[in-house]
Amino acid sequence: QAGRRLPPFEQRLCELTITAYEKGGAPPLPRVLGEVKELRKECIECGKRWAAECKSAPSARAADEAQKLGFEDMALLADEGRDAVGHLVELVKNLRQVPVVQLLVPSVVLVGAPNVGKSSIVKRISSGEPEVNNYPFTTRGVTVGHVHNPDVFAVFGKDCQVMDTPGMLERADDERNEMEELTVASMLYLPTAVIFVMDPTGMSGTPFPAQRRIRDALRERFPRRPWVDVVSKADAERGADYDAELEPAGALHVSAEDSTNMDTLTGRVHEMLGEVATVLQQRVAKVQEEGAAGGEA
Fold it and tell me: What distances in angstroms separate CA 32 from CA 14, 23, 96, 116, one per listed residue?
């Protein structure tokens, strides 16, 4: 219930963290919470019972003896509930490891199959040195950088975020793992523009035709997102499965190694951030208007 009071993106991160923890062999969270709740109830009853024994003891020595027995009973209860409490503590540790993402700042997410060069592009278009965020359910860190857009900064008082995301595979939505779900959540719940990255070299592990199908499925799902298609590693040779006809119309060829079209891409990023900022301002204004109307009612 507490999770439902979180913003949608953070709620989804909690769900993914819990799911990954349970997949690691931990019992389901509802069962753990039920066992901890029952343990709490038993501890309260035990404390009350022995407190009454101490109070009604005929002598100080008898009261001390009752207190000792009470502590022993409490220790037995704690030992019985050790596993449930341990699971809950470990899960809390995992949840505390979830990085903080600015929820109301225009952002750009780089999306694509694994190993297509997303993080390298983030490093090149970021204003400063990016940081690496580690999520409990990802096997590698997510690179997060920032882009200084004066117009956006004047409104929101913060630099825009630019981040890579875990690689997407060609499969049905209900078959996606927690890492892929993080990518989808970033597009679904954050105020984002999208850079979809395709690798033509054949070295990413995902065939070029499959990368195009992944791109088309996501574009169909998010048709209103500001979007730019990028073909990475422009300095490298094309792989055997590369087909120029499979490139999305208007795709920008870039290279993080020799800077091919990086200035052009940075310019497109700033344009998209402006679009996202406009939409975000409109949404915030609408929420404020609705809140004011509700207060008057």
Answer: 16, 14, 18, 40
Q: How many domains does the chain have?
A: 2
Q: Do residues 37 and 62 both lie within one domain?
A: yes
Domain that holds residue 23: 3-96
Per-residue pLDDT, 139: 61
Claim to verify: residue 245 and residue 117 sit in the same structural domain? yes
Domain boundary at 96, 117, 144, which? Answer: 96
For position 199, what pLDDT does the model report? 97
Say what the pLDDT of residue 3 is.
55
178, 65: one domain: no
Same domain, residue pair 11 and 137: no
pLDDT tens digits, 202-254: 999 999 999 999 999 999 999 999 999 999 999 999 999 999 999 999 999 99
* In the predicted structure, residue 2 carries a pLDDT above the cut 50: no
59 bridge partner residues: none
In this structure, how many other beta carbons lie within 10 angstroms of the beta carbon of residue 273?
Answer: 25
